[in-house]
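User: Could you go from structure to sequence for me? I need the amino acid at each position, not a summary. Structure tokens:
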């Protein structure tokens, strides 16, 4: 046998052996390392096209000990901090003052829900007065799709957040174990307030991404849509005049062995409208945009988290 066919056979064998490794996609577990103390720092850029507000600051999310969600679900505490830049005191337009309302207004999801669903505002205020969740939402945060102050839990099927004031109820879902491109998932949000506020997720792509912290290969991009449900519009006399619906659109990129490195989202207050709703915005008009870009390598686990230190001195 001549040397040439032998070389061809050897090359073919090596290609066959390498093919599975090349085709192998990351697992859900690889996309978000969750050792206690690990933290991620982001450059945050927020634009409001309503009042020309622009905010540039830095935030951090980190795993800070453990917490328990009702009923007895053992989770990790995904904490959020403002590192630098503006920390405006948020408010819910038209809401009365009070500590509970101020705390709730710092939650980006609640602010968008407030704008999207005027019909739910009285119920939102009641829920905040009863038991705000999350209990601590620091000012200066704008991202709905990637933020902290959650009871974070990875299971065999998903990475999700659990409600702190409603038993056996998830408040968010970031990832699922089936990372096949095109796979979709859903989650009903705030079931205690409405039945038609739904999170939709799609495994959209595996692609490289460049952020200030560097370029990462093989990132999984998950596209998200929050459908805030149909809201009934009324005139000044309280009579129904039509319906309107709002959405948040965006994505998060997760880098293997690193975690979430990039987030982009837009709030669209009117994606469709019927009847004579007095909508101040055009259909499809984006009124706010937020981006998060990882600005440094994640800080690895530490020996003792701040949460554990606090527990020692209680």
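Assistant: Here is the amino acid at each position, in order:
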């Amino acid at each position: 046998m001549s040397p040439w066919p032998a070389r061809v056979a050897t090359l073919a064998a090596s290609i066959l052996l390498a093919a599975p490794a090349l085709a192998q996609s990351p697992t859900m577990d690889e996309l978000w390392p969750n050792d206690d103390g690990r933290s991620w720092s982001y450059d945050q850029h927020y634009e409001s096209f309503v009042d020309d507000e622009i905010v540039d600051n830095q935030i951090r999310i980190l795993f800070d000990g453990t917490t328990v969600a009702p009923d007895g679900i053992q989770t990790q505490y995904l904490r959020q901090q403002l590192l630098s830049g503006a920390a405006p005191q948020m408010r819910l337009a038209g809401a009365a003052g009070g500590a509970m309302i101020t705390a709730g207004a710092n939650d980006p999801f609640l602010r968008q829900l407030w704008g999207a669903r005027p019909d739910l505002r009285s119920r939102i205020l009641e829920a905040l007065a009863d038991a705000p969740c999350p209990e601590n939402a620091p000012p200066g945060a704008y991202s709905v799709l990637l933020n902290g102050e959650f009871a974070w839990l990875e299971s065999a099927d998903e990475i999700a957040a659990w409600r702190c004031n409603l038993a056996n109820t998830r408040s968010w879902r970031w990832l699922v174990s089936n990372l096949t491109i095109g796979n979709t998932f859903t989650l009903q949000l705030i079931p205690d307030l409405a039945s038609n506020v739904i999170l939709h997720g799609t495994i959209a792509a595996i692609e490289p991404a460049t952020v200030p912290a560097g370029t990462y290969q093989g990132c999984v991009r998950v596209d998200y849509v929050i459908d805030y449900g149909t809201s009934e519009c009324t005139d000044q006399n309280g009579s129904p005049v039509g319906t309107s619906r709002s959405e948040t659109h965006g994505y998060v990129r997760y880098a293997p062995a690193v975690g979430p490195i990039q987030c982009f989202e837009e709030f669209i207050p009117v994606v469709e409208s019927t009847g004579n709703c007095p909508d101040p915005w055009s259909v499809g008009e984006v009124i706010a945009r937020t981006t998060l870009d990882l600005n440094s390598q994640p800080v690895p686990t530490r020996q003792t988290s701040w949460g554990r230190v606090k527990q020692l001195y209680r």
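One structural detail worth keeping in mind: The first strand starts at residue 39 and ends at 48.
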